[in-house]
Amino acid sequence: MSEVYDYFLLFPAIHDVLKAEKRLKSEKIKYELVPVPRQLSSDCGVCIKVKDFDNALHFIGKDAIEACYIYNGTEFKEIKK
Fold it and tell me: What would the pLDDT profile of 17-44 be if each residue is shown by its tens digit?
């Protein structure tokens, strides 16, 4: 049985978060808007948490994302774009 991880997508500004949220919603991809975890840094205080990283990245576009982290339940690891 494979583990399911959370992916945190960080954006440069709230406008970018809302644009990505609109896209995910229109494609029916499950997501959550959450505060940026304290361990991570961003100019924007809100990020998007998803489980289906590949689909989310496909519809948002990697250029729109400032940074992406995978969370295994204990630590964050940055995913290089």
Answer: 999 999 999 999 999 999 999 889 755 6
Q: Which fold has domain 6-79?
A: Alpha-Beta Plaits (3.30.70)
Closest of 27, 75, 14, 34 to residue 54, by C-alpha = 27
3-state secondary structure of 34: strand
Q: Give the tens place of pLDDT for each residue, 39-78.
A: 897 556 999 999 999 999 999 998 999 999 999 999 999 9
The domain segmentation of the chain, as residue ranges, is: 6-79
